[in-house]
Each structure stands twice: as structure tokens, then as C-alpha cells.
Amino acid sequence: MWRVDGRPGAAPPADDRGLAYGDGVFETVAVVDGRPALWPDHRARLARGCTRLGFAAPLERVDAEVAALAGQGDGVIKLIVTRGSGGRGYTPPTDAGPRVLARRGGVPERPVHWWREGITVHRCVTALAVQPALAGIKHLNRLEQVLARREWDDPGIAEGLMADTRGNVVAGTMSNVFARFDDILCTPPVADCGIAGVMRRRIIALAPRLGLRPRVRRLTWDGLARADELWLSNSLVGVWPVARLERRAWPEAAGARACIDALAAAGTIITPKGWHSP
């Protein structure tokens, strides 16, 4: 059940600018044993997104919603913050009050072998537009990802990788991407498009403990094919090793498994049922 401004079962009005224009931001937070994992990072990104869009983040209300929904056990909290109600036209109203929508749900069930053995990934045709004004934040307009996700219906394909209109690989439809070249762990910049993932940030900080040197570098499709390992990450799945992208297969993913173990030990991911490192 959704909560709207703290009211269970309520619905946002039809004049909400998030509904009309995608004028807002969202966060998807993993709840690990009753604790919202990486919440300071989610909270900071939400605040940056509101500031980028030009309205004040209602952080006290957001904090209250997270506290009310964290509960016990594992789960997922979805937060949406919109600019609030407004009339016709794109011009933001000066007197709009931000609206907070929140919901707790269960953990999506996915095959444990996606973590153990890796996933199959689709190369998306849909490209990400270069738009630095919106890059990095989780704004509500996800139409590029919607179009990309329509490109496959094979349940054996877990995710799709997207490049920008210049041909640089940026991210998955719902994930950030890492490529390991020997002891260098590369992830693309998100200054022009893409999302600055909270799990991406955590993996960059964790990499030296795994014997890896993190680097933010542009990646191409040809470059990915030369990588020793390919990983995808987000706050719900943690890390998925990639087993296949088009004709390229990666039979080994020791680095990804070590990263999963480290994230699980720190309590920052929901450990997949049946997970263990071979």
C-alpha cells in the first residue's frame, strides 16, 4: 500500500507534476534485516536531485517515511518525491509543496545462479540522450529505460546494456556497469547521462580492499569485449557478474564473487537465498 504524505492508501491528485511531467525524483532502498541499507547515500542523492530540479527536498518527511516503513526483516522501500501540484504548462509554480509517496514491498525473487554463475545481458539499441543537467540523479522520467526494456522478452536475459548517442557504454537499464581489466576496475562516467548509483559509489570505495584499482573511464562495446570480468550493480541486486553479452562469454567471475561476499558481510545487500561462494 502506498502512503502519500504519510497517509496510507491515499492517491496523488491528477494535477501532480510528477504524474504530468516526471517532475520529481525517486529512490529504491534495500531493507536488510530491518535496516535501510546505504540510506545516507540514498538520502544525499535524493536531496541533490531535488536541488537540481529547483525545489527543496522535504528530508524530514522522507526520513519519517523510511523510519515508518523499515520494519523488520528484508524488503524494499520505494520513495518518490514530486514538486507537488501545479496547473497547466511547464513553468513550475512558485507555491508548490513537494509531495512524498512511499511504499514497502517484498524482495524480488530472482534465480540464485544469476549471482553464482552470472547473467546473460542484451545489447540495447535504444540510446541514452546526453543531458548533463539531468545526469547522475534519479529523476522520474525513465522513458529511455522503458523503451530499452521493451527490446527483449526472454526471461533468461536479466538486463540490458545501454550506450549514449555518442556510442559510449554508460549503464544497464537498471544498473551501473563495471569492467575489470587485470587489477583495474573501470566504470563509466555519469556526467553526461546515467545515474550515479549508490552501490556504484560503494563498490568504488571497496575496490582497493579487493586488490583492485578503481577508475572512472569511458567504455566502448569493443572495450567491454576485452574485459576480464563484467559486473552490473544496483542497490537491490548488489552485484551481478555478466556471463554472456552477445557472442562474448565470461566463464570466470572471482572478482565479482569476492565483491558480493564483502558487501554481504558489511550488511549493505540482501544476500540471495542459497548464495555461497564456490
From TrEMBL:
One Gene Ontology biological process: 4-aminobenzoate biosynthetic process
Keywords linked to the UniProt accession: Folate biosynthesis, Lyase, Pyridoxal phosphate
GO molecular function list: 4-amino-4-deoxychorismate lyase activity; pyridoxal phosphate binding
CDD domains: ADCL_like
InterPro entries: Aminodeoxychorismate_lyase_IV, Aminotrans_IV, Aminotransferase-like, BCAT-like_C, BCAT-like_N, Class-IV_PLP-Dep_Aminotrnsfr
Gene Ontology CC: cytosol
Reaction(s) the record says it catalyses: 4-amino-4-deoxychorismate = 4-aminobenzoate + pyruvate + H(+)
NCBIfam families referenced in this protein's UniProt entry, alphabetically: pabC_Proteo (TIGR03461), PRK06092.1 (NF004761)
Designated name of the protein: aminodeoxychorismate lyase
Protein's organism: wastewater metagenome
High-level lineage: unclassified sequences, metagenomes, ecological metagenomes
